[in-house]
Amino acid sequence: MIRSDKFLHAENIGWENPEPGVTRQILGYDEQLMLVKVKFEKGAVGSAHRHPHSQTTLVESGKFEVTIDGETAVLSAGDGYYVAPDLLHGCVCLEAGMLVDTFSPHRADFLK
Predict the structure, then answer these.
(1) Hey, what's the torsion of the CAs at 78, 82, 88, 92, to 10 degrees?
(2) I need a surface site. Which of 1, 31, 47, 94 has the fewest CB within 10 A?
(3) What is the spatial distance between Cα 108 and Cα 78, in angstroms, rounded to a whole number?
(4) Against a cut of 0.85, is the pTM above it?
């Protein structure tokens, strides 16, 4: 079975750089669920993409212009969004901040 350790201390987990101005830290996961923190610099772009996973995201800090399936909204700290499987989605960071993503099932592509 694929799964993370039970307890995860952020200071012991490395950050990856998937796109310019964007870093992510993979937290708890198993085959059915994954939690990921994604830090954005102002102006950084989360390129439009799609995947077969359900995703829900919390805007922990900052301000983001999020587009899902052609519909756009500006979201700030405390807001969130849901992306159904296979919908095209992406974002632009308007004020530096962090998103907290959850995926079901886990993103095996993030673990390679």
Answers:
(1) 0
(2) 1
(3) 28
(4) yes
Q: Which amino acid is at 83?
A: V
Measured between alpha carbons, how far is 53 from 105 in angstroms, rounded to an integer?
6
SS (H, E, C) 17-48: EEECCEEEEEEEEECCCEEEEEEECCCCEEEE
**DSSP-based three-state secondary structure for 107:** coil
For residue 30, the 8-state DSSP code is B
Residue type, 17: N
